[in-house]
Amino acid sequence: MRKYASLFVLIVLILSAVRDVSGQEAIRISKLLEDDEDISIHDISRIDQTVIVADSLEGWDASWVSGLNGAQAAYDNWSQGGTNTISVTASTVFNLMYRKDRFAYALNTNFKYGKARIQDEGTRKTDDRIAINNKFSYLFDNKRWSAFANINFSTQFDKGFNYNVPDGENPELISEIFSPAYFTQVVGIAYTPADYFSAQTGLAMKETIVANDALAERYGLYDSEVSRLIDPFSSGSYGVYTRNPKSFRFEPGYSAAFFFEKDIFKNVHLVSSVETFTNLQRHINRTDINFSNEVVGKINDFMNMSFQFVMIYDEDFSKQVQVKQVLSAGLSVNIL
Q1: What structural domains does the chain harbor?
Q2: Closest C-alpha to 152, from 191, 213, 109, 118
Q3: Which Pfam families match (predicted)?
């Protein structure tokens, strides 16, 4: 349980920081990370990427930030031993915002791709995501409350593998572009009591696409079929169960989410979110849960360090909780 201690600390920080002050309409979009495999499984964990449409905005505003993070370790005749590694991750985030009177719109595109070269093990993917998110909002007379509609899409660029296989076996393919891919739509009500905290809930629809039939069963996309066969050694018959892969699944449900973003110390920024999706056709104990956190420390105008901690429960992929922790340093450049 010690490795989950940071989860409790982050929750305490969130609860202690929330105050009842007037705020802006905050629009936050999420990311996905995954633990033992080398890619995001949903899209796709979801360290929260925040877009805030300020009350003062009139018309259009755009921002574009690109980054390059890396790590490297090399050893030569080192008595304690070690493995030579080098990893690089490139990312780019584009935000487009619009506000007119009570209506607001935000577009967020988030692309990321990373690889690591490990001595004697070759090259492996460390991060991979494509995320396109849209949010439409209408503010009520009390600007802390708003109606919203989200339309989001996520998948990955490249093939991902599970390397935790027995010796002598090839790595197991677990994902590739459009396998899986997710479309989600949410319509509901948002409450923003402060510019650093918001909560939202609403009706949701989720569509899952798996273009590769070989991966369909891994993500729960299949139909079960029973064939009755005659037993030649008796007068009876027996059933044979087969699973036929599907490429598409539609899920109606409801969603709830909480978002927090604030400077917790000088030059130290925390972004945290809890997001859930409950399929109305399933028991509530099969609710998808994503708890995502990122702490970013600014070194100067171009360099920063970040720590990411993500927990995911998605029974379609695994009945066990997925956990991801990432510590990285790199460059960040504002293009727009």
Answers
A1: 2-211+247-334 (2.40.230), 215-244 (no CATH)
A2: 109
A3: DUF3078
